[in-house]
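Ticket #4471: structure output looks truncated?

Reporter: J.K.
Steps to reproduce: submitted the chain below (109 residues) through the standard prediction queue, then opened the result file.
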Amino acid sequence: MPADQIIQVTKEKIEQFKEENPSNIPEVDPKIDGLDDTAFAVTLRIPEEPEDITDTDLYSIQKAKLRTEEDMRLKLAEEKKDGVRQRIDDIRAAFANLVEKNKTKEESL
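Returned output as attached by the reporter:
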């Protein structure tokens, strides 16, 4: 079968199918059933001018972030200081132990 004949037979079968099985979708008239512009209108209820926060006790987002970063740095610094203090206490204890050993050695000499 040539290609033209295949296309013709396909069109005929499609037309025959459409006649035997009409569509269930009703036709929509845009003037009668269509949507008007009010269906697309969106009204936002935003006050004209937002209120400024004038309370000086409240943090702004930037101040809160800076405060959090500063608190983290202070916490890390305190942890480092505690580690150094612990190391100094360990060295002092070792030194006191050496001093005691040294005193016992001097007496025996």
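Triage note (M.O.): checked the attachment and the full token line is present. The mean pLDDT is 81.
Status: closed, working as intended.
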